[in-house]
């Protein structure tokens, strides 16, 4: 199953939990297999993540009545470097949890481009293709997402 990790990662961040992400990815892969003969592009990953996104939007209509309700994604243990001491591990875990919470608070359209760019390392062109928006809009959303995340991080640090 090519690009399963990227598909699941995007779905988990969009749905906010593992169970719903599994449903979205399963639906996306069924659609991809059904329409595999229609694939005419150069980048299968972009095509698949577009299907994942569209499956999420359909899932959202069916399950959330159009409301975007997201929960922070669980912090994965492989994000933590296994070599640091206990204090460094604790601080890194707190930072990862804080980042997950702050990202979950971002508007969905900001979080989506941020995940595709920073975590999935996709180009602006590929993100534009996945999301169906112009590359200029991708760049402006990404800029706004980074700024909003930076402001939220600073505000969070000031909170006792």
Proportion of strand residues: under 5%
- Quick one: how many beta strands? 0
Q: How many structural domains in the coordinates?
A: 2
CATH class of the largest domain: Mainly Alpha
Helical segment tally?
7
Mean pLDDT: 81
Order of helices and strands: HHHHHHH
Please name the CATH topology of the largest domain: Arc Repressor Mutant, subunit A
Pick out the low-confidence regions. 66-81
Q: What is the percent of helical residues? A: over 70%
End-to-end distance, in Å? 46 Å
Major beta-sheet overview:
none
Do you know the CATH architecture of the largest domain? Orthogonal Bundle
Helix vs. strand class: mainly alpha
Task: Summarize the structure in short.
By secondary structure, this protein is mainly α. Helices cover 71% and strands 0% of the residues. It has helices spanning 4-15, 18-34, 44-64, 86-105, 108-119, 124-131, 135-158.
Which helices and strands, and how do they pair?
Layout: H1 4-15, H2 18-34, H3 44-64, H4 86-105, H5 108-119, H6 124-131, H7 135-158
Helix pairs in contact: 1-2, 1-3, 2-3, 3-6, 4-7, 5-7, 6-7
Keywords:
160 residues, mainly alpha, Arc Repressor Mutant, subunit A, 2 domains
